[in-house]
Amino acid sequence: MAFNPVVDEEKCAGCEECVDVCPVEVFEMVDGKSNPVNAEECLGCESCVEVCEEGAITVEEI
Question: Do 33 and 14 touch, CB atoms closer than 8 A?
Answer without folding.
Answer: yes
